[in-house]
Protein 1
Amino acid sequence: MAAAELDVKYVAHLARISLSPDEEKKLGAQLGNILGYIEKLKELDVANVEPTAHAVPMVNVTRLDLTAPSLSHEDALRNAPRQNGGLFIVPKIVE
Amino acid sequence: MLNQLTISELTARLVRREISAREATQSCLDQIDRVDGKIHAFLSHNNADALAQAEAVDQRIAAGMAAGQPLLGVPLAIKDVLAVKNQPLNCGSKILGNFISPYDATVIEKLRAAGAIIFGRLNMDEFAMGSSTENSAFVTTRNPWDTARIPGGSSGGSAAAVAADECIASLGSDTGGSIRQPAALCGCVGFKPTYGRISRYGLVAFASSLDQVGPFTKDVRDAATLLGVMSGSDLRDSTSVPEPVPDYTAALTGDIKGLKIGLPKEYLVGGLDPEVKAAVDAAVKKLESLGATLVEISLPHTDYAVATYYIIATAEASANLARFDGIRYGARVEGSDPIKLYEATRGAGFGPEVKRRIILGTYVLSSGYYDAYYLRAQKVRTLIREDFLKAFAQVDAVVTPTTPTAAFKVGEKSDDPLQMYLSDIFTISCNLAGICGLSIPCGFTGNPKLPIGLQLLGKPFGEATILRIAHAYEQGTGWHLQKPVL
């Protein structure tokens, strides 16, 4: 579990971020340093501790099944980098 | 100088028709023209739109239709992370391109309904990741007390704009201290409400289990007023809590006799600047002289908060920021297939700190590491939260320094992310525990003269109590009345 195991290139690909070789090198060193610091959590015994996902847990939050105003088609598309005919334009996905 | 007024002063004078909303708004715009070339708090501001809103307020006042609006004619500036309809929204990042918000955040709707004039986009660290605004893709905001220094972050623009009287009050967001830390470093009041107190609808998500919206103001009364307007549950945010909203200004009685305030021993050690320590010690004595009882308490897991935070916050960020993919909005760098498009768009659009955190967050959630990092951090979060709940069984509030030092110089920590993270050491636990907290001015360093902040932490939904303590302290000291020379 040593910090050095972080393969920056592989994780950046998982995160869908392209990095220059310089960025890879710099990030690798910085992340190693940060992960080294984070290791201190291993000092604690958490065997019988429940995890906290939210500090103020709310369960089964529902709303009435009613129609309410929402974004118009035009508003939903107005910030699109490329659009045509009321649709987002994306690269070809299937052959 | 109308731009120097507080919300309560401004609205009182408007109602008496001594001044107009247009004059108040123009006064803020004039101050921006005069000082923002050296402060750089604003990324943009639409003067014509601000003045049109002000004129509409003046017409409502003239027609006798504005009675009872708590923010009548108050010019409020907004951190660039909240959606304001038809205004730009960039989160201090290049990746949003020319994004224009198609709707208002819930808090903006509430502020408008209370009579506020919503203007200006305030600078921030990119996606609220940072403690200095040096991570903004556009500009570094400067501290109004010393322009060689940072204003704090991530809501640095929001703090600097209030300290420099460029607006009457502002909004920011706080994920690990991003309201309280810059408020402390710029010498204004900053409030981080209890998680779930204020709707997050229209707040661009960084770490959804930690983020809260909150105000920057010139005094505690204004913070109470804004908090009252913005609080309450919202059908569009299922994590907002249906807890009644009290009249927070009614809590400002000036009387804190008999309140118990905890002083955590873990917060007064190592790395604390001597001048900050002296100011906080003096503030503690002042609280005692006002009738509060100070009790030493222990928050034993304090030392683990920064490490816990940088796992949980980055994990949540790595998921939240997946939406910035160049497909539905924002900037796009084309690629021959969708994966190449995503990678090129995100590689070009995100700055170094955002990349660092997304990659760290992706790693701690990845197969084989989830239990060792993310799950363990969630368990330590439980321990940190229990520390506070145990303390609050004993005391009504907790007092600490807001930051270990006063404002540092631009560039001083920008090459060392870990040192930058450690500057948030006193503010981070509050978000992990989901409790409320505020920072108020409690003195200044000697040379140069820089503000020092006092942090008060309250029980879940204990906003009224810490406002009451802060108000009594403020009225008993007057630190908040000092202004930077600009």
Note: Chain B touches chain A through 77 residues (CB under 8 Å).
Protein 2
Amino acid sequence: MIRIVGVLGIALLLSAACVALEPSSARAPEQTSVTFLISGDPADEEAYRTLVEHFMAEVPEIRVELLNIPGQGDFRRRLTADFAAGTPPDIFLINYRRYGPFAARDAIAPIDAFLAQSDVLRREDFYPQALAAFTWRGELMCMPQNMSSPVIYYNKDLFDAAGLPYPTNDWRWDDFVNVAQMLTRDLNGDGEIDQYGFGVEAALVRAAPFIWMNGGEIVDDPAAPTALALAEPASREALAWFVSLQNAHRVVPDAVAEAAESSLSRFLNGRLAMLMESRRVVPEFRRIEAFDWDVAPLPQGKEQASILHSDAFCIAAASPYREAAWRFVEFANTRVGQTILARSGRTIPSRIDLAQDPAFLDAQARPHNSRIFLDAIPTLRAFPALATWADIEGAVDAELKQAFYGQIALDDAIAAATMRSAEFFSRQE
Amino acid sequence: MQRRKTPQRASGAATAVKPMQALSAPFGSTALQRIVRLWRRKRIGRLLRHVLAWSVAALYAAPLLWLLVASLQPVGQPPPRTLAWFPQGVAWSNYLEIFRVAPLGRQIGNSLLVSVAGALITLLTASWAGFAMSRLPASSRRWLVGLALLLMLIPSSAVWLPRYVLFSGMGLLDSYAALVAPALLGTRSLLALMYYWSFHRISCEIYDSASLDGAGVWALWRRIALPLARPTTLAVAVLAFTHYWSDFVDPLLFLKSTQRFTIAVGLRMLQQMDATNWPLLMAAVVVMVAPVLVLYLLLQIILDKDASLHLRSSRLWRDAPIHLQLSAGSRTKEERR
Amino acid sequence: MAAPFVFGALLLVVLPAFLSFALAFVQYDALSPPTWRGIENFAVIFRREVFWIALRNTLVFAFSAAPLQALGALMIALLLHPERRGVRVHRAAVYLTSVLPDVAYALIWLWLLNPLYGPINLTLAWLGLPTPAWLVDPRTALASLVIVAAVRVGEGMLLLIAARRTAPDSIYDAAQIDGADRLRTFWHITLPWLAPWLLLLLIRDLVMAIHSSLTPVILMTGGGPGYATTLLPFLMYEEAFTHLRLGEAAAMMVVVFALIGPPIGLAGWLTRRWWREDAA
């Protein structure tokens, strides 16, 4: 019996060693292999896999290995660990709110030079807002792949059932609250709400557009921020309106209901009328058959404003295959490349010429009102570019969440967030 | 087996009983005393114990039952708000669905490979280390045992990053070798110590006579020590297998390709995709938990039958709990015979 | 024969642990080379309010989970120690909870504690009792984690059953002759006999509670609501792997070591004292 154990052990050791060697041995000698890390659900992964396959058919000498880590937190930890070990992915797709720490440490290879030499890509092809978001101390660090902003996804069937007209493109905060209240219902009369009017994540990234719409600011000086400005009257007023949706109007699931079943899941199952989300949910929503849905712009305040969402392809400075990596990034941002991703519904192209293209504005595919994503573009604003922005956002979210669910007072939340984020404004890494 | 302390303690305890009786007298025949008297009547006491024991067991088994029930609720409707079993019907299809949503099949295969490899290598290294500890002269033994105890105290979180750098330097990232690497030191030093404690009980004379017959160290380990420590081997194998099967942080950090992910990471990915899709999440949990439960139950059955070898004494931090329980159970059986 | 073990221990644990310790005194972001920082890392974390919240949470968590765990283990061990029909099943039921993979265990409890649909609240509602929001409410979130950790008494139970068995029957016979009832027998014989084991079990649980809190926090609460369940290991993990502040994370690790060092030292000292005579 012992001998068997021994032999098996050695065999397994060898097989483990073989597994370790497998990727390098499977590669053809003349091929360059680059890794490409993303974070998304299966629908996202599918879209990027199609892109990678098209690229490899076009450029056979470069092999792209697609890696997906679902969950933004896990994704960032993996990226950190990879950089720490000196084995970063050659290419990674990251949000502009999250690339600061890597840019500040010169871990990303700037792409100005690549772009200048490119025959197929021109800087003017891309939306300046997206380019600006990925410009770090005057250098373009990453190639923006998409740009969007949060919108209100709404369930048409629930509006019909309540006899309400669909939202218009110029509805205002008060209209929105009224509609949400009429759509929040206890259907079976047991005293429990079965259908909520609105669902939103209690986070700064969702509250920010309303602060700006109200003429408020998030930080004292957007160009050179030194502190949060959430206690300013205009900002505070907008935040008070935002948290009142839950803790006063009760049109949003409370903490208990949200933990029991997420707003996203409620919307998918037809039990939540309106959901504030970015473009990323579209591939999943296109699979909905039980009801019809569309998108509406955010309700308007005093000024027009919304927040930029944008992801970009970054190339690791430590990558030995930066040229090959650029060829993939270049391909992905050509008309062909961006069309592939736009068709999945996942993204709104960062190319100006593609935004009007049927691949994105497809009248057949939901959402029919996709044009509102384009209409919002001139009003988009971005969070400040700081290496420690993730810390600041984390400090605000922890407090905002509690204020939103009525666990602490809003003013206490603002005070705590301002105090806890202070050190991250002063320490620039 | 008898301890030197025993007689002294026993008499101390016996004398201490009397003042206690005197103390409780002023209370007279209070309700408390009546209960105590009732308690003394063995039959009621025994019945009560029996009921209590079954309710504790039921309480501990309930979560697993609920898990099973939750995994069979249909997806898409709000979960039931009553304690009814299956108000919306039984959805066996959930178990097919999770294999469609996530590559669970492949992940289970990966986990099996890692866990079996890890367990086998652990059996070798842990028993070698344990054997060395039991045979070395006192000074080197103390050093080794001390090292093993020290290892138990270092939290795994302290070594993630340096290990990551190390593995990437050795080109082991994204390979199962990185996951199985802890098997080199017996997975957990407790497992090496378990071998040490069971080898330690083998009397020197057996080794001596074998040595006279010309057996070398390896032969002693293989022909004498290991066969005598069969229950330990089984326990170590199960503990090591479970360790690799359950391991969550290592694969999260060291593996890159999704095709190589293990079931623990797969579960986390499923949670990340839709945190409140309870039926599917719970179905995946059932799939992950089932092999572990089956293994432990099997181990218990095997060791129950194998009453010929067991511990003679049990000391804290010297005997692995599972080993203890199983052998403790079999010992009483044997003693009754 | 111990070569692989020693080699593995040095390479995979001792050396990395020293590196981690050294990190506490440098500024290191894993991307650029480390620079010497002295004790500044400690000054930085001590100035941070969240660190103190996490420290307090960690202490509250460990010092409530571990005693509860030991107490539960004791009660169940005494209940289940006599060999009777069915006792094997009872022990298995209790023990199996302790062998479930951490990830699965955390997810199961996430479901059990679900405030609306979870079986625990459904049962409480059926009994007409109040239904807390458990992990969702900042006032009960940490307590929920304590419960989740404290019901895992399998290993402690087995240890104490084994320990109880080592008590010779003669002392119980003597007590019976003296007419001691069960309560007194427990108080004056069983408990003193088990005391050393109990103490060691308690210390072990204390250390384990701190070490093994990371997975449940990651999977069940993410440190929230607010910072209610932010424990030091989780904060450390976030600092190092999300915010690239490895030096400060290492400084927190040193604090954790300082916390669990004394109990471990005490445990070692007690073990040696109590079992010196029959340690070979």
Note: Residues 388 and 424 of chain A are 6 Å apart (CA to CA).
Protein 3
Amino acid sequence: MGELSYLLGMIAVMMFATVSTRALPFVLLRGREHHPLLEYLGRFLPPAVMTVLVIYALRHVSLEAAPHGFPELASVGLTVLAHLWVRNALLSIGAGTGAYMYLVQSEILLQVFP
Amino acid sequence: MRASNRGTFPAALRATVPVMAGYLPLGAAFGLLFSELGYHWAWASAMALLVFAGSAQFLAVGLLGANAGLLETGVAVFLLNARHLFYGFSMLGRYAESGRLKPYLVFGLTDETYALLCTGHPPSTADARRFYLYVTGLNQFYWVLGCTSGALAGGLHLNVTGLDFALTALFVVLLVEQALAVREWYPFLVAGSAGVAALAIVGPDKMLLAALTITLVVLIVSRRPAWVN
């Protein structure tokens, strides 16, 4: 029973901590949506945050150790090219993810980077 | 108005497919790890429903295993999720008119939901509020399904190695969309430098919050004259 109340407490604390981070801006800045600074941030934060998220998603890629980030860089490159070419998000993501899964699952890179 | 709502759900479904490809394997991975703690599988579903935060739930597996204290857990999860503070800033306008849906939309503002909604425009004929609701709800549905099936299965024998790259590819596509829409180097340059600097200084595990903080401060300070007055 102590085990169960501990788990319940942990879930409650995690829920509260997560909701706080998501709700604080809405609670603190209620009614100020048209402040010039918030409009500026609303326009410039999305491209900036997306840039950070891409770097974050690739944070564990090692350029030193084989295969030197090749699967990630090649798949990101393919995703970008596919998207600039056809401009269909599903197709771009499918192509990039398919290429990545092939590169990390097949033995092909072991022949290039022994 | 009624007829124009018909296309909203299919549009949300299409928009969230890449998130599904990322959430199902990631959620399953969480469920597998969680089930090794010895709890009933339903608790994995409960966490997906009530917490709905991928990185925090992965952290929680370690914390639960180590019998961490509640205060320690609260602080760790708050800091880990502090990046969501930044998402709120740029969603204030979009969610301003969402009425009684707002509490749920704010609760479900994960990295991926934010990434989809801050870039994607809802179909022009559709009710934006419904689109936001469907996207958020579908994303949570995929997450609950992934976490539950992982905890239930205890061992899926599919080779899904690399499938989680779908989330990386999603961020890349959204970045390309932002680049085509914004047509200014400045935010990309600031955030790119901040990201690389944070990676070098605090390392991969803590870079997200550091990079976002540097980005926010530099953006505000450097463009001050543009928004004063």
Note: Chain A touches chain B through 67 residues (CB under 8 Å).
Protein 4
Amino acid sequence: MARIGIFVCHCGTNIGATVDCERVAEEVAGLPGVVYSTAYKYMCSDPGQTLISKAIREHDLDRIVVAACSPSLHEPTYRAWLENEGLNPYMLEMANIREQCSWVHTDKEAATEKAIRLIDMARAKVAQAEPLHAMEIPVERRALIIGGGISGIQAAIDVGMAGYEAVIVEREPTIGGRMAQFDKTFPTLDCAACILTPKMVAVAQDKNVTIHTHAEVEEVSGYVGNFDVKIRLRARSVDADKCTGCGTCWQKCPTKVPSEFDQGLGPRKAIYIPFPQAVPRVPVIDREVCIHFRTGKCGICQKVCEQGAVDFEQEDIIIEEKFGAIIVATGFTNFDASAYGEYGGGKYENVITGLQFERMVNSSGPTDGHIVCPSDGREAKSVVFIQCVGSRDKSKGVAYCSRLCCMYTAKQALLFKEHVPDGEAYSFYMDIRAAGKGYEEFVRKAQEDYGVQYLRGRVSRVFEHDGQMVVRGADTLSGSQVEIKTDLVVLVTALIAREDAVDVARMLGIPYDQHHLFTEAHTKLAPVESVTRGIFLTGACQSPKDIPDTVATASAASAKTLALFNHDFITAEPLIACIEPSLCSGCMACSDSCPFGAIEESEWTDPSTRKKVKVARVVESVCHGCGNCVVTCRSGAPNIAGFSNEQIFEQVEVA
Amino acid sequence: MKYAYYPGCSLHSTAKEFDMSTKAAFRGLGIGLEEVQDWVCCGASSAHMTSEILSHVLPAKTLAGVDRDAKGVVVPCIACYSRFRITNAALQEDPELRAQVKSAVGVTYEGKIPVVHPLDVVVNDYGLDAVREKVSKELTGLRVASYYGCLLTRPPEINSFDDDPENPTSMDDLATALGAEVVDWPYKTECCGASLSFTRTDIALRLSHDILTMAADEDADCIAVACPMCQSNLDLRQRAINRKYGTSFDIPIVYFTQLIGLALGIAPRELGLHLHSVNPKNLLKKKALA
């Protein structure tokens, strides 16, 4: 016969003000199996836990119910306490009388009655509990890092420095990501390349780090400590071992197409490296545009390569590797401004995006650092920035604030004034959001020292008239309509999830929000963990982040990875499914409903007939205990340890 | 394809040519129109400025009388159109308002009769491919600036058919289908000042002047409109604008239905083109359209 103890927590006034805890403790004392019950002000405090220990010993309790907050908050606390007392930690049930009772009710009498009922249900469940034991899983101490921007680079450096192996998989032909496209960085105005390229070189030279560029992760299976990953190394058409990066091939290549890296403002060749400091300095051939691949002719690059590195026959290679942890650093993309037809993005050449401005102002960019009108190449004497294009606009863009645009607008406007001292820079803004070290001061500097003119209000229309751009908008501070004639318009577009973010999330089995940004396990207390153990998040794939925040989350994600790698084994929750073969018909409907691929076909010998039959079997290390199989099975063969059918039915019975 | 038709007061008076040309163009396209029996004033401006319930009672009274077999009711005047759509949305959402309307005028109306603009019908329902097939006299060489004004596409949750509220293109697409040359200009949805036409005529003149200036700068031969208020501001006041600003605009302001009619080969008189203050006669002659 079970010996149950019930511990009712006041949680100060959180529960105590709405639930009569003393009365609850008295009434539940008479429930079946209960040998002890009490109430206490803070059960999770040290004296509260000592009280539980004492009661376990004095009343020889073999299982307990704690009626307090949500199990997601303190279940681990109480489990650890049970273990201290020599009990199995799973002989615990929590009745949530805070979030699901006191916090949502005002009638004390009714809330007290409800608390008693909730506790009775927990009692009925714990009475059927059986001791469970955590499984031990070995850990493969290698980290896969998806994305080779500043986020992935920093994470790889941190993991490598700790002596563990890291593998970066980057889709583009080079690492460096968005940061490599930037000119200077706010608020210190140090040049992005100057601080990024040393890190790119460092990570490339790190013996613990392997970099696959022009590659993509194709498939991920497995679980924490043991992810099986397929990586597609796309054919570069250049043998990286032979290539010296001399550049003769791309100098001689006759095919010019708009450069993605330069945001279409300049050309690249069909065989190319995206920018001079690319790592690795090995070109790729864009087979879509290459004359040889389209017509079978040309082949100049192959002829001029003294190393014989150009290899038209190269094919994609798929490699399969095992990793213990995955760091997702896939970054962001920019909102397509064509949703705002009235701003003329994509219609007028002299309406450009912030990222295009970044390339233009960069001295090694397509215009050698000259800020020009793309329509005719003349120097721009005036520029109007339109902030929040897509941000904070749920009807056309995203509801959230993209967080760094205020800063980069101030930076770009300031740089414009440095490049064109007699020019005029204007910025239409909604609010200035400059929270960050030295940020507000930086915006002030742009306004006060550089004379950038800030207009608070939205722009209604941008159009071309008499060879100039005309920006019409509201200045809400002076309460007037304004019309500014300008050479250049910069649309400060929102930062959004990449187009294929959902595919990546599905491949990894991690959740995403309505904007397709990856969701943290807890926005405050687990900001770099995904809910899938062993998969960590960093950078702008979670939400728009500036460089300091991106680097901070990268180091945080690597710290979490290293904590994992510091164990030979990790423990896994035993709350998983188990299929009773004698009840299983082998229909495999459970397998179809399993989101983790944790159910496989298996053979079982029926003891009565001695025949071998096909049955479903749970792969314990992969199962998450979600319960889908339990509700799918018609014959009730699966059961979840710690949430067994017997336990649930008992609960329902007393409810 | 058959619709009910609500002309409203404007189309029986100042915008008679919109009435004439809508009927003629629809007849030419083969879209049936049958005028709603015993229709009443839509209440635009005066009703909704004074009594909210009155602003719903008037449209409900008319809409309740619409033939339920029709595909919907075609409402050319943009003020009527807007008021009807607002009442439809309000009545669909609010049972109490439906009860109030019923006790006021004794009609049961759920807000379900589709209220459509003739531009929407031609572009989205009838379809531009079908229009193209009917064109017998392409408007070749006619530079048309499409002017949508404020209400046709806004507010989008009430009025917008399948078009961009800030940068609508349906009238431009129609003009192209009719063989005209479309002027890409930025003042498509500017305010013409209609609501201030009588109280602050100076403002209405300035706003309409700006629109005419931009159209002239972009070498438009005419401005196509879909709203009687826009039409009267730009057309009737054009002479006053010229006097005030020392300009010499001579830009005909035509309804899009008149353009359809011309392209279908209907005589300008049947389309009411002779009723405009800025007479398009010379323009039509120059472009060999009359």
Note: The CA atoms of residues 265 and 332 of chain A lie 21 Å apart.
